[in-house]
Amino acid sequence: MDIFEKCLNFKDAQKARDEGWYPYFIPITENKDGRAVVNGVERIMIGSNNYLGLTYHPKVLEAAKQAVDKYGSGCTGSRFLNGTLDAHIELEKRLAEFTRKEGALVYSTGYQTNLGVISTLVGKGDYAIMDKLNHASIVDGGLLSFGEIVRFRHNDMQDLDRVLSKLEDDAGKLIIVDGIFSMEGDIAPLPDIIEIARKYDARVMVDDAHSIGVLGDHGRGTAEHWGVEDDVDLIMGTFSKSFASVGGFIAGQKEVIDYLQHISRSMIFSASLPPSAVATVLAALEIIQAEPERREHLWEIAHYMMDGYRKLGFDIGGTETPVIPVIIGDNMKTFLFWRALYEDGVYSNPVVSPAVPEKSSRLRTSYMASHTFEQMDTVLEKFEYHGKKFGLIS
Questions:
Q1: Residue 2 lies in a domain
Q2: 205 near 176, Cβ under 8 Å?
């Protein structure tokens, strides 16, 4: 059997292209101030994770330019050997201070962070205990480990307790949850998770990819939101959302960080984060702390859109954050609804099964501090018009 046979038989994407509703890998010419330009046509962007709107902030852009002038375009080596700059060390120090942890370690992507941390810490005889709706990178980190994955129903604390009660008392246990769930927009109930973790001597890791810069009075994420910063063992974050760059990090106890620094394969065997990205994150971190009004406006926009969608009759699930799913159910209807909005000037993200549970396909919308209420009124008008046309609302 030819190993490429599965590729040759894969026709779904081409069928979608031929029929004109293929929604992925769209080349964007410009993506600024809540709008995206595609093929010369401007659309309102409600599909970006640029929550604080920092990708064009003058301080961010200037920091990136200065870093290229000083360090060049890349490090051409791994952190372990020749790829560590003084800027990497400064960023890790600042991230540890920001998250109120003893240490932090920077990875080249958020995906690699979860892969490296989980696969390194969860060994033979250990357990990775995961919410069923966790991000794929968390699941893959567990699959790469020598431990066992056990899963509990989404944000169901009784089920988490049940799952933990069945595990050996002397086994290592790491509970891993998203802070903000990226397809649902709801928040992990950390106080309850921590209480159950203590009952079973488990550690707690929070993936704050969509939470840092968004949740908490100072933007420190889910733990700050709940007031449990001292009780969460590991905080993971990415730089591709509020930090307006690329990369990821893990923050926690200094001995754990030191262990990961010397054992974690996805960090040791990857080229280090480019200087421009490091400088971008450092600048974004300063802005997150110095300009709280960005986060305040983001939440005003988010609440405005939650209220608007609900008043129109759309199903947006249990979202509590600037991640707002518009749940449609049927895969094809989701694609067609996406296309109608896209052609009418609104850029969103269609997400269908198996990326989400069966019969819960949706448009994943997300909002930014750079959005205006005028833009949001236009989005709601378009959703109302096409929602009625497709029979999604009355």
A1: no
A2: yes
| Longest Cα–Cα distance in the chain | 62
- 210 included as an active-site residue: yes
**pLDDT above 90 covers what percent of the chain?**
98
101 has catalytic annotation: no
State which of 240, 256, 290 marks the end of a domain: 290
Identify whether residues 73 and 40 lie together within a single domain: no
Q: What is the distance between the alpha carbons of residues 366 and 227, in angstroms, rounded to a whole number? A: 25
234-238/203-207 β-pairing = parallel
Q: In degrees rounded to 5, what are phi and psi of residue 185?
A: 80, 5
Q: pTM for the complete prediction?
A: 0.96
Q: Give the domain range for residue 329.
A: 10-45+292-389
Query: How far is 13 from 10, CA to CA, in rounded Å?
Result: 8
For residue 161, being part of any structural domain is answered with: yes
Band (pLDDT 50/70/90 cuts) for residue 355 is confident
Cβ-proximal residues to 29 (8 Å cutoff; 6+ apart), any chain = 37, 38, 39, 40
- Closest to 382 measured CA to CA, from 369, 370, 392: 392
pLDDT by residue (tens digit) across 373-389? Answer: 999 999 999 999 999 99
- The answer to whether 282 touches 98, Cβ cutoff 8 Å, is no
Catalytic residue (choose from 241, 297, 371, 386)? 241
386 is catalytic: no
**Phi and psi dihedrals of 328, rounded to 5?**
-115, -45
Which of 101, 173, 210, 225 is flagged as catalytic?
210
Phi-psi region of 100 (alpha: psi -120 to 50; beta: other; left: phi over 0): left
For residue range 261-270, what is the model confidence (pLDDT) as tens digits?
Answer: 999 999 999 9
Q: How crowded is the C-beta side of 372, counted as CA atoms within 13 Å?
A: 7
* Order of strands across the sheet that contains 361-366: 323-329, 361-366, 349-351
C-alpha 92: how far from its chain's center? Answer: 20
- Do 158 and 99 belong to one domain? yes
Name the strand (E) or helix (H) holding 188. Answer: none
119, 182, 245, 360: the active-site residue: 182
> Where are any strands of DSSP class E within the chain?
30-32, 35-38, 41-45, 103-107, 127-131, 148-152, 173-178, 203-207, 234-238, 248-252, 323-329, 346-347, 349-351, 361-366
Final residue in a domain of this structure, among 245, 273, 290 = 290
